Amino acid sequence: MQLTDIARRFIVHWGEMGSSWGVNRSVAQIHALLFFHGQPLHAEELADTLGIARSNVSTSLKELLNWNLIRVTQVLGDRRDYYETSSDVWELFRTIVRERKEREFDPTVRLLGELARDPALAAESPATQDRLRSTQEFMQTLGAWSEEMLRLSPATLEKILKLGAQVQRFVRQGEADASSQPVTPMPPQLPPF
To answer: What region holds the HTH marR-type domain (predicted)?
Structure first.
């Protein structure tokens, strides 16, 4: 398969970004080619098109399968395995977030919970105990929020993201207005009886 200039630039960039994301360049390039091409490809096509060793393609495909970013499919009349990825960017986003959360975030939350329950924590300074517990609480809250976001439909998630940007602009504007206004003290509030 001959790559167009657009395809080549996309695949090369995606591969370069892979290292920033903690992913091998070949893994990222294979995923980029499958995403860009939009059709199932077999391992030999991937190796030939990208100019990488067949063994590297095989290892990269296993990693992509472990991340649930590609799936194996068959083509009528061909015994080889073909590989494809979703063309839905929201599905890919949710898969990546879910997989990274399970591999990186959740183990840290579990460890913080174990440490918070460990009686030996009492030997640490109160400030250290507070930092550990507040970190655990923050990460649990963030984890629960991300789980809720992953359950939403792409259309709803997109609306929330756009709404969030509008809320941020509103809050920033309010902060800017408040900082330019003289502060007048508020009278003390009496508790309700």
So the answer is: 22-80
pLDDT digits over 112-154, tens only?
999 999 999 999 999 999 999 999 999 999 999 999 988 988 8
pLDDT digits (tens, 9 = 90+) for 6-59: 999 999 999 999 988 889 999 999 999 999 999 999 999 999 999 999 999 999
Are both 15 and 70 inside the same structural domain?
Answer: yes
Rounded to whole angstroms, the Cα distance separating 70 from 68 reads 6
- The whole model's pTM is what? 0.75
Domain ranges, residue 18: 5-85
Neighbour order of strands in the sheet with 70-75: 41-42, 78-85, 70-75
On whether both 75 and 146 belong to a single domain, the answer is: no
**Are 152 and 128 within one domain?**
yes
- At residue 79, φ and ψ (nearest 5 deg) are -85, -10
Separation of first and last alpha carbons in the chain: 78
